[in-house]
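Hey, I was hoping to borrow your eyes for a little while. I've been puzzling over a protein and I'd love to understand its fold better. The fold is given in discrete form, as structure tokens running alongside the sequence. I'd be grateful if you could look everything over and explain what you see. No rush at all, and the record is pasted right below.
>
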Amino acid sequence: MIVHEDWLLTSARAALHIPTGTAVLADLHLGYAEARHRSGEAVPRADLAASLAPLRLLRERHQACRVVIAGDLFEAGLVPALTRALLAWLKEASLELVGVVPGNHDRGLTDGLLPVRPLGIILGRWHVVHGDAKLPAGAVVHGHEHPCLRWQGMTAPCYLFGPERLVLPAFSRDAAGVNVLGESRWGDWSCAAIAGEQVLDFGRIDSLRERIPHGLRTRTSYTDWHG
């Protein structure tokens, strides 16, 4: 596990705000398979309980008691059945849903079932938003970017972090990732990649391409990566 200021960066693809015990995750894209089916694609339907299982580990291992969803809860707008199933699962897991910040994929969230927070959520000095619009001033946590580390056929979701900024990996395993090695705008940020149950700090992205072959040999095995 890696700590960035007030945040524990976990292998569950969720960052834990340590002072408040709040797990923050983004880009669940629930209903992804159903949306693909409507367009004629054959995509396996995801099991919601299995998808959310990592949050239960945060409860057990790190005493997480609250959850914030930083946008793109759904793939293609509100799905009432999935909303009810999500709320039931969180209740059974003893996790309080503090709020859902709408993302660019979230349409119709004003049905009264979810605690929708269009202006974001404040945790300590951090402002949690989705990240698809102009970011607020100050310390910000957001999703939307789906950052990943892709190298020689291997892909690992990752966190990006720098002074007063934390970008979350997509919680959904179906979400396509944006390779941090191809984005010069993130050059002076640091990358923490998820490899199995580990979170590995690969340091600054602008020098990562030169360092990564050695880093992979010494810090984790190829088979630990989600390819």
Q: What stands out?
A: The mean pLDDT is 85. The first helix runs from residue 32 to 38. The longest strand covers residues 154-162. DSSP finds four helices and 15 strands in the chain.
